[in-house]
Design the sequence.
């Protein structure tokens, strides 16, 4: 729908937007994880059993245990994907450190390539909206063609014609 058509539709609507909760804090910028998905226009995959079966050998082969990693690879990968999907803070510094290690070693790219066909969700927008309730009303007479000539006007709930709104 082009801008002219959008404008015509908006002229027919009586819309009210109500903010129902607190406005989220503005984020300074995307983290490197969110940027990774945004720059590649990729959804954040949902890790299924089948997906894990494909990814696990890659992570096992790349394991660099110079020190004991207390968190299992699957839990870390799930936490990383959850953070990307929701914009939540890092759950632990261990998850963040492992993500950066995987990126530096090329493992992250391999894992995401394996999961490229998995279902997923887009990363949240950089500027989050507060919780909203949107209410709208359209005069049914407008849908039937009344008010389509330049001389017809239909009052809106605000007491002015749709054309003047």
Sequence:
């Amino acid at each position: 729908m082009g801008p002219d058509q959008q404008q015509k539709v908006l002229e027919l609507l009586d819309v009210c937007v109500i903010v129902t909760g607190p406005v989220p804090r503005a984020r300074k910028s995307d983290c490197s994880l969110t940027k990774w998905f945004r720059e590649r226009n990729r959804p954040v995959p949902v890790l299924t059993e089948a997906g894990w079966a494909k990814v696990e050998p890659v992570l096992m082969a790349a394991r660099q245990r110079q020190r004991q990693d207390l968190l299992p690879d699957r839990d870390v990968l799930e936490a990383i994907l959850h953070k990307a999907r929701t914009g939540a803070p890092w759950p632990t510094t261990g998850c963040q450190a492992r993500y950066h290690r995987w990126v530096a070693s090329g493992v992250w790219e391999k894992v995401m390539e394996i999961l490229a066909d998995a279902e997923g969700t887009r990363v949240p927008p950089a500027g989050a909206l507060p919780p909203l309730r949107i209410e709208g009303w359209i005069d049914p007479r407008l849908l039937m063609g009344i008010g389509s000539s330049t001389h017809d006007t239909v009052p809106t709930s605000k007491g002015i014609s749709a054309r003047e709104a």
User: Anything to note?
Assistant: Residues 32-121 form one domain. Confidence is low (pLDDT under 50) at residues 150-154. The CA atoms of residues 30 and 126 lie 7 Å apart.
